[in-house]
């Protein structure tokens, strides 16, 4: 499913017209507009520029009908980018109608769902596709069409997902940063299932708080959101990569225990479909918070996590099998909500450093600073690490957001 600007404009006009003709008596609009500047410390492998600027808008429309259990939310997203035509894109992050009954809830449309507790990797988060051109950290997601039936009882929260069709991952264009060495033919993906991206997927999840423990159990059956890559050598002089989306079954568990200043976290999953054998992967660790480390009352958290994958050989584009992650989270607990997160991932001589910091500027503005540094042993070659294609993409970015 490809979202175009005209689709978003049409949906916005329909909702606005509906709200002004009595269908919605009190429409509420809010959202955020942002401007982002990036500077890369080196020229790209293919001569890409070192400077990049973009602007984005993500408005949100919400209404709940008076004396009714029905509500609707609409959240489109648009970005224009000076460097990468593929990063200039639009998406409907959410367009959801919701009905809340006495003991159950029904939602239908497009939305985003997050599962997981770990800081460094979200193994169990599988409902939505990653919007990779937005950010390489995997936190930004495309909207997913779904029907969700849920009920919360004494035994916990039970959710059933019907997912008609899947989204294809976005990738940087030829002029963009964080691109692959070969040209990516993302317009001609390969699907293992004969129904292609129109396959009907499904998922079920149970979650519950039990004392200090937050537990979730999930199962997903459908098209993998993580593509494999196949080399298309139809033109030997210009080979291309084609994304391959296989059909998988994934069963997972996520657990978080809150013990005073300690947060213990675990995400684990077992999956079939990528090869003949079922494999498992896990990420786990802890976060310990030192409260009141300064006279002003700032808190400092220390994060330690470990990632493991049971496969002896990982496909191109996947994380290393054993990754250690050390991080620190600083919360100043001041009026502008100044926060910072630093993380270092290390595996087999390859490392990735990440810094994210933010601070509110008045009531309506927010400033966000990001820096990412990659350290790769170039003698190992391009297939030795997921980070190799990004070895010259170290950058720092500054974003200003305006909320309305």
Give a structural overview.
The chain has 404 residues and is mainly beta. The protein has a single domain (5-403), classed as Beta Barrel (Porin). The protein has 1 helix and 22 strands. The protein has one helix at 5-20; strands at residues 28-40, 51-64, 70-81, 89-100, 105-111, 144-153, 156-164, 183-184, 190-191, 200-210, 213-223, 228-232, 240-245, 247-259, 262-272, 279-290, 299-309, 322-331, 339-347, 350-361, 365-375, 395-403. It is globular and about 65 Å long.
Biggest sheet character:
18 strands, antiparallel, barrel
User: What percentage of residues falls in helices of 4 or more residues?
Assistant: under 10%
CATH class: Mainly Beta
Q: Give the overall shape.
A: globular
The CATH topology name reads Porin
What's the domain count? 1
Number of helices in the DSSP assignment: 1
Assembly classification: single chain
> What is the CATH superfamily label?
Porin
**Unreliable runs:** none
- Based on secondary structure, the structural category is mainly beta
What's this entry about, in short?
With 404 residues, the chain is mostly beta strands. It has one helix at residues 5-20, and strands spanning 28-40, 51-64, 70-81, 89-100, 105-111, 144-153, 156-164, 183-184, 190-191, 200-210, 213-223, 228-232, 240-245, 247-259, 262-272, 279-290, 299-309, 322-331, 339-347, 350-361, 365-375, 395-403.
Please describe the topology of this protein.
Blueprint: H1 5-20, E1 28-40, E2 51-64, E3 70-81, E4 89-100, E5 105-111, E6 144-153, E7 156-164, E8 183-184, E9 190-191, E10 200-210, E11 213-223, E12 228-232, E13 240-245, E14 247-259, E15 262-272, E16 279-290, E17 299-309, E18 322-331, E19 339-347, E20 350-361, E21 365-375, E22 395-403
Parallel strand pairs: 8-13, 9-13
Antiparallel strand pairs: 1-2, 1-22, 2-3, 3-4, 4-5, 5-6, 6-7, 7-10, 10-11, 11-14, 12-13, 14-15, 15-16, 16-17, 17-18, 18-19, 19-20, 20-21, 21-22
């Amino acid at each position: 499913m490809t979202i175009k600007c005209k689709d978003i404009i049409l949906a916005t006009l329909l909702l606005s017209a509906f709200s002004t003709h009595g269908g919605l008596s009190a429409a509420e609009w809010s959202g955020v507009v942002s401007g982002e500047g990036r500077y890369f410390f080196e020229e790209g492998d293919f001569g890409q520029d070192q400077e990049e600027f973009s602007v984005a808008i993500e408005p949100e429309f919400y209404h709940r009908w008076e004396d009714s259990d029905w509500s609707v939310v609409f959240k489109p997203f648009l970005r224009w980018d000076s460097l990468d035509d593929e990063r200039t894109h639009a998406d409907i992050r959410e367009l959801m109608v919701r009905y809340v009954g006495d003991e159950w809830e029904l939602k239908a449309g497009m939305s985003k769902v997050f599962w997981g507790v770990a800081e460094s990797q979200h193994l169990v988060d599988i409902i939505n596709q990653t919007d990779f051109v937005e950010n390489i950290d995997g936190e930004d997601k495309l909207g997913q069409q779904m029907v969700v039936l849920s009920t919360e009882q004494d035994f916990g929260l039970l959710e059933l997902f019907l997912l008609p069709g899947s989204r294809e991952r976005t990738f940087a264009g030829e002029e963009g940063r964080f691109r692959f060495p070969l040209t990516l033919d993302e317009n001609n993906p390969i699907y293992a299932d004969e129904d292609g991206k129109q396959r009907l997927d499904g998922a079920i999840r149970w979650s519950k708080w039990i004392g200090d423990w937050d537990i979730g159990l999930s199962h997903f059956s459908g098209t993998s959101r993580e593509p494999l890559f196949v080399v298309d050598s139809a033109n030997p002089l210009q080979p291309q990569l084609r994304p391959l989306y296989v059909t998988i079954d994934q069963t997972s568990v996520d657990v978080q225990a809150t013990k005073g200043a300690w947060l213990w976290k675990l995400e684990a999953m077992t999956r079939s479909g990528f090869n003949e054998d079922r494999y498992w992967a896990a990420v786990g660790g802890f976060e310990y918070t030192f409260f009141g480390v300064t006279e002003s009352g700032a808190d400092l958290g220390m994060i330690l996590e470990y990632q493991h994958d049971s496969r002896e050989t990982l496909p191109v584009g996947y994380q290393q099998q054993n990754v250690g992650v050390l991080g620190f989270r600083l919360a100043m607990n001041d009026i502008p909500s100044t926060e910072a997160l630093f993380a270092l991932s290390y595996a087999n001589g390859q490392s990735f450093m990440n810094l994210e910091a933010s601070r509110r500027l008045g009531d309506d503005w927010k400033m966000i600073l990001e820096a990412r540094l990659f350290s790769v042993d170039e003698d190992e070659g391009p297939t030795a690490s997921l980070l190799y294609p990004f070895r010259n993409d170290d950058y720092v970015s500054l974003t200003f957001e305006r909320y309305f």
